[in-house]
Design goal:
With 418 residues, this protein is α+β, with helices and mostly antiparallel strands. The protein has 3 domains: 80 residues, no CATH class; 42 residues, no CATH class; 204 residues, Sortase (Sortase, Chain: A). Helix content is 34%, strand content 14%. Helix 4 runs parallel beside helix 5. The chain is rod-shaped.
Length: 418
């Protein structure tokens, strides 16, 4: 039977044997042990409401008397009621007090403070390790909007953000330096430079010619500005061609030899007068007088007239061309334009009875694929007074299989190709 189920009267009338009298129950050791446990429980429950018993009473040794054990049980019960009265985890049998809500608040606040400091210390430690890993040695100045660190060395939120921002900037700078110093880009850059260099050496004429097409290739002297193409104006002895519309004012090299080299050399010094079968007359004579000049040339070529005809394609019907020859000015008006193949020399063969001129240059700009022909008829002086060329001027066979073009490019000269 549980001693707690007995009435007080029953427990008082049935004395429990003392621990020291085990010899009287030597034949029943289990009953003796049960009596000891009952006495301990009685002592605990009998002192659970007694708050006056001091909790400092020492616990009796096994050899103590039953009265001493009872006193020890009371002391233990009193200790249980006093320890942790203010803690939400107090293990007692009294009713919970109303102030335990405040205890819970203090408990949770303590845990929050702990975790906040823990994570702050962990973050600061991680930032410092990352800075040490990247080898950054720069000194981080304190921002003006932040306060000084706490006494325990914990950074504030603004300081931590500032430090992280500086660390990111430092890493980006180091990465950019590594990219710039990387040797992987050197071969690519070298190959790109070689390609650009070869392209410019081979095709610089296209680039330069198209730029020159928008720039005046020459300058017209004020005395060469002509108002009336039929006016008889005295001129000097130099032979030259003047085309006001495209701002051409250049010397003419007369009677150039039949070879390609001779014609290229003449075109470096101005506009070349070239003879072809059926087109071997001179200015003021019946027949076709041919003049050839560059619209583009390689940048390595010499001469001041490499782009003199770069705007020749702008000429249209009724535009005027002037030629000063033998101290006399001849005026011509354009009546036709044509684009032919470089070998179509027969396009120059003229069988009419009027003095005409033909201007020749390469087209499209920067290439020698085709030839542009500009035909103009004399209007002044009176073409009816023109004379026929002397028989010695006549050319019966072509000196070249095609029209003179541009000189070889630098690469063509280097590798012997054309």
């Amino acid at each position: 039977m549980d001693p707690r189920s007995q009435s007080p009267a029953t427990r008082s009338t049935t004395p429990a044997p003392a621990r020291g009298s085990i010899s009287s129950s030597a034949g029943h050791p289990r009953e003796a042990a049960a009596n000891i446990v009952r006495n301990e429980l009685d002592a605990i429950y009998s002192g659970s409401t007694n708050a006056d018993t001091p909790h400092t009473t020492p616990i009796a040794q096994p050899t103590a008397t039953p009265n001493t054990k009872v006193a020890a049980g009371k002391a233990m019960a009193a200790e249980a009621t006093k320890v942790g009265d203010d803690s939400p985890y107090s293990k007692n049998h009294t009713a919970p007090e109303l102030n335990q809500a405040e205890s819970w608040k203090r408990y949770h606040s303590a845990w929050q403070d702990y975790y906040q400091k823990y994570y702050e210390q962990y973050y600061v430690s991680a930032v410092k390790q990352q800075i040490a890993h990247t080898g950054s040695q720069q000194t981080i100045s304190q921002p003006t909007t932040t306060t000084a660190p706490d006494d325990d060395g914990i950074l504030t939120r603004d300081e931590a953000l500032y430090e992280l921002r500086q660390n990111i900037i430092s890493q980006a700078t180091e990465s950019a330096k590594k990219v710039r110093k990387s040797r992987h880009f050197i071969p690519i850059a070298a190959a790109f430079a070689v390609v650009i260099t070869f392209a410019l050496l081979q095709y610089n004429q296209v680039l330069i010619a198209n730029v020159k097409a928008y720039v005046s290739p020459g300058t017209i002297e004020p005395q060469n500005i002509i108002i009336d193409p039929n006016a008889d104006v005295p001129v000097g002895p130099e032979t030259k061609m003047i085309i006001p519309k495209i701002n051409v004012d250049a010397p003419i090299v007369m009677n150039v030899g039949p070879t390609n080299d001779e014609q290229l050399k003449a075109m470096a010094d101005g506009i070349a007068h070239v003879r072809y079968p059926g087109a071997s007359s001179e200015p003021g004579q019946i027949g076709n007088t041919v003049f050839s000049a560059h619209s583009s040339s390689d940048w390595t070529d010499s001469g001041a007239y490499k782009f003199i005809f770069v705007q020749l394609e702008r000429l249209a019907v009724d535009d005027v061309v002037y030629i000063n020859y033998n101290s006399k000015r001849y005026s011509y008006k354009v009546f036709d334009t044509k684009v032919v193949d470089p070998k179509d020399i027969s396009a120059l063969n003229y069988t009419g009875s009027d003095p005409v001129i033909t201007l020749i240059t390469c087209t499209p700009l920067g290439t020698a694929e085709k030839r542009l022909l500009i035909f103009a008829k004399q209007v002044s002086p009176d073409p009816s007074a023109a004379t026929k060329p002397a028989p010695s001027q006549q050319v019966t066979s072509a000196s070249s299989a095609e029209f003179t073009g541009t000189s070889p490019t630098f690469l063509e000269r280097l590798f012997g190709a054309r």
